[in-house]
Amino acid sequence: MQFTPDGSRTEKRISLLERVSTDNILTKVTGREEINLRPHTHNRHQIIYILAGTLHIETETTSYFVTDRHLVWIPRGVSHRLSSNNRQISLLTSYLYLEGIKDDKFTIYQTDELIARILQFISARKHINRYKQPEIYAFAASFFNMLPSVCQEATFPNQPFIIMRDKRLIPILEYIKTNLHQDLTIEHVASCFGFSVRNLTRLFTNSGIRFVHYLNYQRVIRAIEILTDNAMNIEQTAYEVGFNSPNSFSRVFKQITGQSPSLYIRK
What we know:
By secondary structure, the protein is an alpha+beta fold. It has two domains: 7-150, Regulatory protein AraC (Jelly Rolls, Sandwich); 164-266, Arc Repressor Mutant, subunit A. The protein contains ten helices and ten strands. The strands form two sheets. A six-stranded antiparallel beta sheet has the order 8-5-2-7-1-9, covered by helices on one side. Strands 6-3-4-10 form a four-stranded antiparallel beta sheet, with no helix packed on it. Strand 3 (55-58) and strand 4 (62-66) form a beta hairpin. Helix 5 (186-192) packs across helix 6 and helix 8 crosses helix 9. The two termini are 25 Å apart.
């Protein structure tokens, strides 16, 4: 499911954010209203906890894939865009302005039940003012500032992909992502785009990508999106994303995520 980024909606959202005093922490549970905005920046740190669904996040240089029950820290001033291929997406989003943050960088964190409960406690207030609710504000600000100390960085995805600047590779990568169900080989892709296998291999290598790894990574991402929507069982999902057997799917899935598909579903 693809959506066109909405420029007017992006500008409206940023305008609303920046009209509110930086002495406020804003929190809310959102769905698709946070998705498919154009790449944008704002003057607040944005913290996203994924309640349901999966999320693609693009910064100026890197593309990330994040699954549910993970937390994303987007520093203020960092250009980003969010998208999702899931039917349902639910995000707990917080916006705040803090000075002197310990580790202010784009980060994806693993969370546990305690972190989730604290986030839900904070988000229930929706609008926390430094002067009207000083105790809650101090608690929330301290909690967000301590996230790098109390959360571990996520191990999956273990290789975020650099956004390509070589324009020749962009349509090739898009072709792979939209044709995962086919029996894709580098020979087939090379012929589709008028490359020799040697030249296409060199193009991938110069961009720091291995063809087979990129193909498998994108297939696993799509499989997680399908499994998150509960649309298919593991065997059906394996064939839907282009694997020739459930066993090969399970092997590659575990290599990339660190766990088997069945364990992922149980979690």
